[in-house]
Design brief:
Layout (H helix, E strand, L loop, with lengths): L9 H23 L1 H4 L13 E5 L4 H12 L3 E6 L6 H10 L6 E5 L5 H10 L4 E4 L6 H6 L1 H22 L3 E7 L22 H17 L5 E7 L1 E3 L21 H9 L6 E4 L11 E2 L1 E3 H14 L4 E7 L5 E2 H12 L5 E4 L14 H7 L8 H14 L13
Parallel strand pairs: 1-2, 1-4, 2-3, 4-5, 5-6, 6-11, 7-10, 8-13
Antiparallel strand pairs: 9-12
Helix pairs in contact: 3-10, 5-7, 7-8, 9-11, 11-13
Length: 396
């Protein structure tokens, strides 16, 4: 019998050694992959990668924040029950960022404490941006309990899971509605909080819970109280698409666009007898791109055992009549306007003093041309007549 002597076959020996080395390398690489270990990239902490949980990330503001975080190379998990959000926005984001470990969407209700705990247990979060909330002043006066459950109670659920799973940074989406109707303008962070509607009250309660909890921990907290949000992504990827049944309660910009497109016969301006320069409410309109930038800067500046509270606005008040005129110019449509009585829970005049956020976070509103912001939003609206469900070529 002949014996196979590798020593007499040097070239074959070399090939065997190379093959063995390749097998070892392949096995090592496979062991590092989520498929081999049975773990998701979202459950692993990676140096240099910030994993942010965005609650309400399928909504108007949350989706724009998710887009910015992804552009900044963050890893993002969106949790949304889609009661107010749009799965279409998530699909847009998934198409823009299809790489593994960039974006995941989880359908869940924050009122389900077990589901929320499971989400925290299965993922490794570095920070939470908490946007999820019902957010219509008028609706809150009709359904107050819904607002206290959705805003206040759900925030408590988030805090409990953060504490249990060691997540140390919270960026909280609050509102100028917590101030109510202050005696002096502009509003600073030291202005007394006296909310006059359930929406503002629920947000203030959530703030109080966050602050009280943070004082007993090393939590890094940023609370952003922002004013009236308008606009959309300048590149036309995302926009505002409220559900049809919520149009009556929605933002004035959405109502203006609906009137301009003929979806509703005209615009209803509620309240013309306020003590303001033209009798209509005065608000501080902040572009969503600026608002998102404030959240990103807050995330970057958040420090353990520290609570930052900031107003996010332009510092300039515009009346509803001025807003309507800007919308007419932006759309090129002579919108019909009906003037009605006041809306329950509304306040006459609210605008911010943004000097603190400029001083401490180096943030300043850049998109302050009201007509331009509305024109950008209008471009998206024209090509998405039915929201994210359809997209058509832009027409004049």
């Amino acid at each position: 019998m002949d014996f196979f002597d590798l020593r007499k076959q040097p070239h074959l020996l070399g090939k065997v050694v190379v093959a063995v080395l390749l097998i070892v390398v392949c096995v090592f690489i496979l062991k590092q992959s989520p498929a081999f270990t049975g773990t998701s990239l979202f459950s692993r902490r990676e140096i240099g990668v910030t994993h942010v949980l965005v609650t309400g990330g399928a909504g108007y503001i949350g989706s724009h924040a998710t887009l910015r975080l992804l552009k900044d190379s963050c890893r993002v998990t969106v949790v949304d029950n889609l009661s107010r959000g749009n799965i279409g926005a998530i699909k847009v984001l998934q198409k823009l960022f299809p790489e593994p470990g960039r974006l995941q969407f989880i359908f869940a209700d924050l009122g389900d404490a077990k589901a929320v705990d499971c989400i925290f247990a299965q993922n490794t979060f570095d920070a939470v941006m908490h946007f999820a909330a019902v957010a219509y002043v008028g609706e809150s006066t009709i359904e107050p309990l819904r607002y206290y459950h959705n805003i206040t109670s759900n925030t408590l659920v988030i805090l409990e899971s953060m504490a249990k799973h060691g997540v140390k940074t919270l960026i909280y989406s609050s509102t100028c509605a917590t101030y109510g109707e202050p005696e002096k303008m502009p509003i600073t962070e030291e202005t007394p909080q006296s909310p006059i509607n359930p929406y503002g009250k629920a947000k203030k309660m959530a703030e109080d819970i966050i602050i009280d909890f943070a004082k007993t921990t090393d939590l890094a907290v940023m609370i952003l109280r922002y004013f009236n949000v308008i606009g959309s992504d300048p590149e036309g990827r995302l926009g505002e698409a409220p559900r049809p049944e919520l149009r009556e309660q929605g933002r004035i910009s959405g109502a203006c666009f609906d009137a301009a497109r003929g979806i509703i016969p005209g615009l209803k301006v509620k309240g013309t007898d306020y003590s303001t320069r033209d009798g209509t409410c005065i608000r501080d309109y902040i572009d969503v791109s600026d608002l998102v930038d404030a959240h990103v800067k807050a995330l970057g500046k958040a420090k353990p055992k520290s609570i930052g509270i900031y107003n996010v606005g332009t510092g300039k008040g515009r009346s509803v009549k001025e807003f309507v005129e800007a919308c007419k110019k932006a759309t090129g449509v002579e919108i019909k306007v009906d003037y009605l009585g006041r809306r329950p829970g509304d306040y006459a005049e609210v605008y911010s003093d943004p000097s603190k956020i400029k001083r401490e976070l180096n943030w300043t509103a850049k998109y302050t041309d009201l007509e331009k912001s509305l024109r950008i939003a209008w471009t998206w609206q024209k090509s998405h007549r039915n929201g994210y469900s359809t997209a058509s070529p832009i027409s004049s």
